[in-house]
Amino acid sequence: MIAPVLELRDIRKSYGASKALSGISLTMHEGEFVGLLGPNGAGKSTLFQVVAGLFAPDGGEVRLFGLDHAKDGPRILARLGVVFQARSVDLDISVHANLRFHGRLFGLSGRELACRIDALCEQFNLVELMNRPVRTLSGGQQRRVEIARALINQPDLLIMDEPTAGLDASSRRDLVAHVRALARTEGVAVLWATHLVDEVGDADRIVILDRGQILADDTPSELLRTTGGEDLTDVYEAILSRRASEGDSL
3-class DSSP state for residue 86? Predict the structure, then answer.
């Protein structure tokens, strides 16, 4: 039996008295595109840092590809692509140098690395920018460099935290379509965190996170059916509103 790409069991993480994650459980399989919806402060970024192995949870179990970060960190990272909300590219070197350096971290070299760089630059409209220092690019262009970098190792799981930040509407649509195609045609599992409902309307599942807890985890059609909403924005707002009302009554 093939292990889930991602399996979280009762994940808890606090910063002092503040609970960032309160018993998160989530499972993803090959080729799934899962939209993680939540307002700012919901715990999305903390969840991503735990999945990426940057933070150890205070409790619970994290497994990627059936492996544990503590024992199999390098094997996990070789199959993982990450786009964090904060910029993380080297601003003082060129687009090409950023991609080449990151590829080498995964053991890529020679013609294989060159072909991957060329293909990604073509996909993300970076060909004419390849030799420019990243610092000279617009915010949206820098974002495209980060996404290309996350894909250079051809990951089996791609986790993206607010990946369209800084992109215009057309670029946002193109990016969503490209990543959705990766899931459908190449079996890449994608966890896409956003507060913009329209970005994940075509997701296989939608997970709604608020105040460190999962409030819903289902297909878009089932969420519409069970809540009676006319669209996913109605569903999202209704679930958050109900959560706020429950919190106020405690």
Answer: coil
